[in-house]
Task: structure prediction
Amino acid sequence: MTLARELRESVYRANMALVESGLVTGTFGNVSAVDRAAGLFVIKPSGVPYGALSPTDMVPVSLETGTVLEGTLRPSSDTPTHLELYRAFDCGGIAHTHSEVATAFAQARLPIRCMGTTHADYFGSDIPVTRPMTRDEVSRDYERNTGLVIVERFGELSLDAARTPGVLVANHGPFAWGVDPFKAVEHAEMLEFLARLEWRVRTLAPDVPLPDDFLVDRHFSRKHGPGAYYGQRK
Amino acid sequence: MTLARELRESVYRANMALVESGLVTGTFGNVSAVDRAAGLFVIKPSGVPYGALSPTDMVPVSLETGTVLEGTLRPSSDTPTHLELYRAFDCGGIAHTHSEVATAFAQARLPIRCMGTTHADYFGSDIPVTRPMTRDEVSRDYERNTGLVIVERFGELSLDAARTPGVLVANHGPFAWGVDPFKAVEHAEMLEFLARLEWRVRTLAPDVPLPDDFLVDRHFSRKHGPGAYYGQRK
Amino acid sequence: MTLARELRESVYRANMALVESGLVTGTFGNVSAVDRAAGLFVIKPSGVPYGALSPTDMVPVSLETGTVLEGTLRPSSDTPTHLELYRAFDCGGIAHTHSEVATAFAQARLPIRCMGTTHADYFGSDIPVTRPMTRDEVSRDYERNTGLVIVERFGELSLDAARTPGVLVANHGPFAWGVDPFKAVEHAEMLEFLARLEWRVRTLAPDVPLPDDFLVDRHFSRKHGPGAYYGQRK
Amino acid sequence: MTLARELRESVYRANMALVESGLVTGTFGNVSAVDRAAGLFVIKPSGVPYGALSPTDMVPVSLETGTVLEGTLRPSSDTPTHLELYRAFDCGGIAHTHSEVATAFAQARLPIRCMGTTHADYFGSDIPVTRPMTRDEVSRDYERNTGLVIVERFGELSLDAARTPGVLVANHGPFAWGVDPFKAVEHAEMLEFLARLEWRVRTLAPDVPLPDDFLVDRHFSRKHGPGAYYGQRK
Result:
């Protein structure tokens, strides 16, 4: 093992953090991280139980070709999806889960609406859901096309991936991202928590008005960007 | 104890795995495994607290006659149901639970619909529910008839037990199976998780369209069968 | 401490079992047990954190007069309710909780219907809910009257307390009982589990038909009474 | 560190108790306590992970001016809300959370109705929800105005903050208070539990009648005030 030693260690630890978050059932889910200067990203191998993983099992993949750069383990079957997201979005890490409530929203083909300040502290908009994929998109390059329909949806809605670091893939589940793989996992956790809140709101008061835009903007901008005043000075 | 020493050990460990999965309340639930060459299966004894079990307490039962082959403990009261499933389905282990959400679907007499890729990764169809049993079926050979109405339902729907490794018995609860007792427990866990997803979908969007068949087939076949590419090469 | 040493020890341990069951929030809940030959029952003291309890803190109360027989601690404020239940029902222990889902049914003034075999294995009927209490019943002898409206409800419905070992008090919460305080705690746990099942059924399929009486009777009688065949021979 | 050594220790421990209660996701939430004689309150710093906190990190703030009295850490961004509550209400500690179900009620803009004795044992009325804030209130002195709309709502409803030790801020989440920071945390925990009960009642029986006032008053007064008889004599 010569390539990406530190990145493999980070990706390993972020996959373990995903397990500790309680978002994982079985072998579902995976985390990756990118090193753009080196032209590669590193991702969990496919179908290996989390308890059996070690840092050296993490698989390095070329950002240019999508092929494995070293080792004999197959990368996650969702690797082509990660690749398309790294190409389209300026992020450092990606986490994919089948977490319970977010996956239910994906199956219900409903966005996770921004209904309050908890949401606005992390996501500056609704968390969108992709359109169903066509027969052709599923039959050829299915996982790559999964990434492309995510990017298409962000384009349609003119969303900024830094302000909206997550998405629901219809009838599949959530992807989240961040500046590094640990932030990606944090966003996956928060996305699930926000789905729980929104699910309860829909069962309590399906027609309640949305919060005002100025409240959402206030909360997003008090944590993010030049005017942020949440947390300690860096 | 001379019979089926290794199978008893496996069945004991699979019953303990069922407890660790969180699917068990009280003494509900049981796991069995079959040795077709030896003409027997081994099952948990009836009504013994899980914490008091040991491998030697597991009860060997004849596949031909359904009678206990060795020892003094009574087998699970659901033993005749397991027997009928082993006779009809080509599986190696069976797990029965009263897990919360799957049991609620059984009481609501609703199938767990296949609403997404999480479901399709494990079950290649909806998870069906049996018809209510008649007075005669309940009053005589009740547990055996429970097995027969499961087999009847699979026949009506032309389901393949390998592609649909689980069922809901109306007003009772789920049975799941697999190539061995550990896979049976894994399928029981997944069935409960899928019930949780489907319950939330029904509360969120009862009329949402089903996913396309080609998406379901793609996910089932990427994990199962000759074209599978999920996981590592064996 | 001279009175009821063994009974205090049992009641202490049953109260601890109640905490371990996860049914307790704060100081809510209490367990008692009766010694009819000695003319007394023993109950948890009022408002003492569970973590600070010891067996000697358990309070012995006269079955005849309802007064404390020894010590300086006040018994649970619900003591007069337990007293009326011991007078009316032939049971050995009583557990009271504010467990989440059962309490919600009590607040919704809905019975926990018998919707399947999980319920019928423990309770041979719906778990009933009392009528709201009058202003007079609340203003004078409130806790005693709580016991009396339970007994009234069982009379109206001709219920057998051995076949239906639990009840919901409207706008309050559940009481459960059994042959000893540990069975009472087990029934309180099962009552909460059955409430969870029934809550999900009501959200999934509010109009689904009830199970047939012959199925309910089969399951109750396979575990209870002269024809029981569940569990091991005693 | 010279100021408020003991109060910092208490506030630190109460923040840790908040984490242990399970009400915290990420860095959400904060607890404070007041020393009115010293003219200050002490609050958690902003955006520091709970696991990295120590008592000396707690920030003392002037009750008169709202400014930090010692140290270099920024106080919680919600500090001006706490300040307004200390000015208006006679309480010793305040806890703020984004706990799941209470936050969903805040997003649904629904009060947590008093539906039974569990509620009445802690809160002598419905737990109210504030009105949405105006653009001006959000754009200038947002956190201070959050406190003022809470106080406004208590005035409109003629609520006594000692009898109703908690509130929901619309599209934000709950605040709770008590005689000290530990009671504030206990009330935050109870508020969440009551939200869970009320959420289930609304999904089960949205039109069920409210409990009678005399039942609510009986339960609140048996635990609080001169006639209290719950718990042990002090």
